[in-house]
Design brief:
The complex is a heterodimer of chains A (134) and B (327). With 134 residues, chain A is α+β, with helices and mostly antiparallel strands. In chain A, 15% of the residues lie in helices and 31% in strands. With 327 residues, chain B is mostly beta strands. Chain B folds into 2 domains: 129 residues, Immunoglobulin-like (Sandwich); 157 residues, no CATH class. Chain B contains 4 helices and 21 strands. Chain B is extended. The mean pLDDT of chain B is 91. The chains are: A alpha+beta (134), B mainly beta (327). At the A-B interface, loops of A face strand 17 and strand 18 of B. Chain B: InterPro entries: DUF4466 (IPR028072), PARMER_03128_N (IPR041873). Chain B: This is DUF4466 domain-containing protein. Chain B: It holds the Pfam family DUF4466.
């Protein structure tokens, strides 16, 4: 009887040890998983006004080779108070983070956002060019 | 042996429960309290604005043996403005849900803080509505109400309601604005002026309404007189009209008192107190119906919410409603 209990106990212990020893994905400073993905691009871009409505006059043009985002906004858009929204490839993150309103009013010095890949090894800066519809 | 007993206990308990559950509960008509009784509900919702009504429904009843209703009165802690009254009709809901009124006496008499109705109908139950027109004197204060009913055998009951805070806000509904005509809006006066009148009130003009078809995203616009000329094309401002108002565009903030739509959203004093539009521009283009703007006047004296009730592209006009808070 004792023998059986011992065997059962060992059988249970083995998977625990096995799982316990498996390596976890590490976590970065934002508490996000660092994965194996190396892809690094912006898949969609949106700009919202202070009323949380889109200010784009048409779809943003994202060039993943040149790493540019070109977006045309309506005439009369308040460029000082805009909320940009980036859609990124899986596991990627953005630097700097967007925490609220962003001032895009200086059209001559466009804003640059860097996309960081899932494995945190690839960093691609994307430049956002805003033009105003006339 | 032991196990058998343990098994029996839940079965017994289950049986007991079953028995209980199956027992029919007999309905008994509640016994009426042998006294004059009353109850009040507040019908109006949202911030209490000066010039608007606070509406209550006052119900009173007594058993047949204790006489009939003699009078009903409401005492407000601050004297109501003209238009304060207690209904002399008792309302109930008809089969189709509509209000059905039965006259119970002559129209109410208001003397000072007290509004009173004397019953002429022989009745032992009534539901009267009370409309308190908020006076200027109550602005920023709180008001309480005491509802009292009297019966023919000398019995009296009372019900207190409140306190209710009276808002500091002002409201103006349905101002018609038109491109090139009644286009100058004054937040201070809560009024719309044409160019000639605007010149006479130059120091009070905070917003200019205009409509342009090109570019297409221009459409209906509310801009400050001091805005960049590209946001007010073709407009020669009347002499002295030059205030720089902060304007923050908002979408789908349909205050119920302004929009009078189905949305239970209310802008209250607190919203204006906490509003921070320091970095807002001085123009708002492409205004649509049901959109609005937060406004802060150049002198920092007023904050307001201007709601667009409707727009008319062909007539180049719009209807706006304003809620204003004095800082």
């Amino acid at each position: 009887m004792k023998k059986y209990i011992k065997i059962l106990f060992i059988c249970l212990l083995v998977p625990f040890v096995w799982i316990g020893c498996k390596e976890d994905f590490p976590i970065d400073e934002d508490g996000l998983l660092i994965t194996n993905r190396g892809q690094c691009y912006v898949s969609n871009f949106e700009l919202l006004g202070s009323d949380f409505q889109t200010v784009r006059s048409k779809n943003a043009v994202i060039d993943t080779v040149a790493q540019t985002i070109r977006v045309e906004v309506f005439f009369g858009t308040d460029l000082k108070n805009l909320y940009p929204q980036f859609s990124l490839v899986t596991d990627a993150k953005l630097d700097p983070k967007i925490t609220g309103k962003v001032d895009f009013s200086d059209l001559n010095s466009p804003k640059v956002y860097t996309v960081v890949s899932g494995n945190r090894k690839v960093r691609k800066p994307y430049t956002v060019y805003v033009t105003v519809q006339q | 042996m032991k196990r058998k007993y343990i098994l029996n206990i839940p079965i017994l308990l289950a049986l007991l429960l079953l028995l209980n559950a199956c027992e029919e509960e007999k309905y008994a008509i509640p016994t009426t309290k042998d006294a004059l009784q009353n109850d009040v509900i507040k019908r109006s919702l949202g911030p209490n604005l000066v010039g608007q009504n606070i509406e209550f429904t006052y119900a009173m009843a007594l058993p047949e043996t204790r006489g009939k209703l003699e009078s009903a009165q409401v005492e407000a802690s601050i004297e109501g403005a003209t238009g304060t009254y207690l209904e002399n009709n008792s309302y109930s809901a008809g089969s189709n849900g509509a209000d059905v009124g039965v006259k119970i006496g002559e129209p109410s008499v208001t003397e000072g803080k007290i509004t009173k109705v004397t019953f002429s109908a022989d009745t032992m139950a009534a539901t009267l509505r009370y409309f308190y027109r908020i006076p200027e004197a109550a602005r920023g204060q709180s008001v309480t109400f005491k509802f009292t009913a009297n019966s023919s055998n000398g019995e009296t009951v009372s019900y207190s309601m409140g306190p209710y805070n009276i808002s500091k806000m002002d409201m103006k509904l349905d101002l018609a604005v038109k491109d090139g005509d009644a286009a100058y809006i004054s937040i201070e006066d809560m009024a719309v002026y044409n160019a000639a009148a605007a010149e006479a009130n130059a120091g009070k003009i905070d917003l200019v309404y205009l409509h342009r078809t090109t570019p297409t995203s221009f459409a209906h616009a509310l801009v400050a007189p001091a805005t960049d000329a590209q946001y007010r094309p073709g407009i020669t401002l009347p002499a002295g009209v030059n205030r720089n108002t902060k304007i923050n565009k908002v979408w789908a903030l349909r205050d119920q008192q302004l929009a009078r739509a189905q949305f239970g959203v209310f802008i209250d004093d607190l919203d204006f107190q906490q509003l921070n539009i320091a970095d807002a521009p001085n123009f708002a283009l492409n205004m649509r119906a049901e959109s609005g703007i937060w406004v802060e006047t150049a002198d920092g004296k007023y904050r307001a919410y201007v709601y667009v009730n409707s727009i008319n592209n062909t007539a180049k006009s719009a209807v706006i409603s304003i809620k204003r808070f004095t800082l």
